[in-house]
Amino acid sequence: DLKAQASDALHDGDLEGAKALYQQILVHGAADSQDRLRAANAIASIAVQQAQPTTASTATAKDVSPAPQAPPQPLKPITLRLQPQKRGFFGKQPDPVKLELLPIPGGTFWMGQTEAEMRQLKQEAGEEKYQKFFARELPRHQVTVPPFWMGRYPVTQAQYEAVMGENPVKGKAFCWTGKEWEMQQIPAKFLGEDRPVVGVNWDQAVAFCQKLTELCREQLQGGKIVLPTEAQWEFACRAGTETAFYFGDRLEPHQANYGCNQSYNGSKTADWKQVTTSVGSFPANAWGLQDMHGNVWEWCQDHYYEDYQKKPKACQDNGSIAWTHEFSAILLYSDEISKETRLLRGGSWYDHPVDCRSAHRNFFPPLPRSSSVGLRVVCCPA
User: Fold this and answer.
1) What pTM was computed for the model?
2) HEC states along 208-265?
3) 68, 121, 126, 292: which one has the fewest Cβ atoms less than 10 Å from its Cβ?
4) pLDDT tens string 223-240
């Protein structure tokens, strides 16, 4: 009850009320260690939100998005209970695995890179690298996103195995050797029930969503589990902010798991973990989502386009519509990039902070598997 009340208070914008409830969880005798850790992270996130304005100090007036609007009948959090397929010792049935879906209010926001980010990126990367890696985040444009639910964390190995009956982390994928990326067995240090599943290609991610929908039809009340569209992902990540990260214009080592051996915009540096961390280990954004910056790249529905220049109006009017070749009949890709390439968002344990920004767009062919790529799910109402 305390967790549900705290989540509702946070969703309704009652930061003080949510903080008080999370503090009760910290001292509650029945709370387990994971609940206490999440409560502590939530309190830390609330402190960050209370200390910062909700809009960017670097954004111009025309760049500031309208405040997200709650739907007439606000969505409530959903907790899916997944029954593991494998039995334990003596045939004992293991406890259900939970997958939390948090409500994301609908609204209109500015999608893409701000002028302040452009200046900072050109200063740090230079004009040539900027055009190659970051100009794809332009032009900035407004998108309206209907309400939906999004996974609190990236999909964990326990969740994936409960649905699909296997753990891809026990297989092969492209792995960082310290010098280059090579196809090999994923190192054992990536294993862990509460760590993100990695080594999942786009087709496997879609299959997971379809199977999860089938298993949880009654709990979803007619809703459907899918990968997020690129617009849904950025809208949810920003949670009303206009800064490079939902923490502000810098990303610090205590806020996320990323390649923190390199600085961005004057951020501190630290030892690089070079491995995923347990989900929920870092502070949440204003809507309760965690690990949106770093840890693992997250697949999106959309095909990759080299910029937003020809984005269909329908995708701007409704951010739950993915920009795909089937939808728009537009093919925009170079000889080096396959037309089937899909979008990735969020950065990973391997990537420097410049690649973990809310606006940054990455892409990857749908079939290869990587130890830096996982997934997060959304649920669209019936």
Assistant:
1) 0.81
2) HHHHHHHHCHHHHCCCEEECCCHHHHHHHHHCCCCCCECCECCCCCCCCECCCCCCCC
3) 126
4) 999 999 999 999 999 999
Report the DSSP beta bridge partners of residue 176. Answer: 181
The SS3 of residue 329 is: coil
Helix (H, G, I), strand (E, B), or coil: what is residue 297? strand
Count each helix (H run) and each strand (E run) in the chain, helices first: 10, 13
Query: How many whole angstroms separate alpha carbon 288 and alpha carbon 278?
Result: 16
Confidence of residue 89 (pLDDT cuts 50, 70, 90): low
Q: In sequence order, what DSSP letters do the residues of 170-205 get, joined into one string?
A: GSEEEEE-SSSEEEEEPPGGG--TTSBP-S--HHHH
Is the distance from CB of 137 to CB of 359 less than 8 angstroms? yes
Q: Return the DSSP state at 320.
A: T
User: In this structure, what are the phi and psi dihedrals at residue 296, rounded to the nearest 5 degrees?
Assistant: -145, 145
Neighbouring C-beta atoms of residue 287, cutoff 10 Å: 23
Give the closest residue to 293 by CA, choosing from 343, 360, 225: 360
Residues 205-230: b if buried by 16+ CB within 10 A, e if exposed: bbebbeebbebbeeebeebebbbbbb
- Give the range among 30-34, 88-92, 104-108, 283-287 with minimum mean pLDDT: 88-92
Half-sphere exposure of 38 (CA within 13 A, CB side): 24
Coil, strand or helix at 5: helix
Closest CA to 115 of 64, 60, 66: 60
Q: Are 284 and 245 in contact (CB under 8 A)?
A: no
Task: Identify the H or E element spanning 286.
Answer: none
State the virtual CA torsion across 192, 195, 198, 203 in degrees, nearest 10. 110
Residue 110 β-bridge partners = 142
